[in-house]
Amino acid sequence: MTNPPPDPAPGSWPADPIRAPGTPEGDWRHWPGLRELPVLDPPAELPATPGRPPRVLVVSAHPDDEVLGFGGTIALLAEAGVRLRLVSVTAGEASHPHPGVPPARDLATVRARELHQALGRLGADVQSVRLGLPDGRVDRYEWDLSALLLDLLRDCELCVAPYSGDLNPDHEAAGRAALRAGAATGVPVWEYPVWAWHWAAPGDGRLPWHRAARIPLPPATGARKYDALECLRSLVRPRSDRPGDEAILPPAELDHFRRDFEVILR
Ligand SMILES: [Zn+2]
Fold first, then answer.
1. Which of 59, 109, 186, 246 is most exposed by smallest CB count within 10 Å?
2. Which residues keep their CB under 5 angstroms from ion ligand 1?
3. Number of structural domains the chain divides into
4. What are the per-10-residue average pLDDT scores of the chain (266 residues)?
5. Residue 236: which CATH number?
6. How many Å lie between the centroid of ligand 1 and the Cα of residue 50?
């Protein structure tokens, strides 16, 4: 996730629905549509791979997307012995407009450390791949990203990526690149919404509900995810009192990711 910058910047100006007040989690909680989605058991969805554990490629646009939208399922897959390869498309260096604000001087380093800690809380020993594309400008490199993901996908049974309709330009570009790589390799792609829980509303016609499925998180897995979310300190706390340095994930936003299930689109 990325805070809206104080001034428009080419390629990074978020769509208005993200700047607008979001849908309270209580609205989602009271909507039966989410509870009635088909249920998935991710390890059981993976094809058998004789002689080796199955492998899943998990793509994030920023080093936190995968924890927010798919962290509980990452924990479930790790527990089932699935090998996980995590691709951070950007380092998330542009999440705040004042990256030099103390105490941390290097936001990319901070966010990489937070992700590492979060993955530890999820019990996931992953192979990490950092592509280093510029935060806020992934769409300029979308075709290169497709080619990179195509290579990274070749020995995987599943690809998971941010939702290509999430209305954050980086999320959408990463999602489109993953869909393209999946189509070229025949590897199925699951998309996880992040910002959609903010800008969409229950039953929202802009979301492809017919492709949605629910992954229940057992209490112990949910607890792992809550712990992992606490590691994302640069997002859940204000970075300073300057404009633009507000918490990207104040408690009301974080509530979307504290459910006892996750939703993917397939
Ligand atoms: Zn993001």
1. 186
2. 1, 61-62, 65
3. 1
4. 48 63 96 97 91 96 97 98 97 72 67 96 96 96 98 96 97 98 97 97 97 98 97 86 81 95 98
5. 3.40.50.10320
6. 35
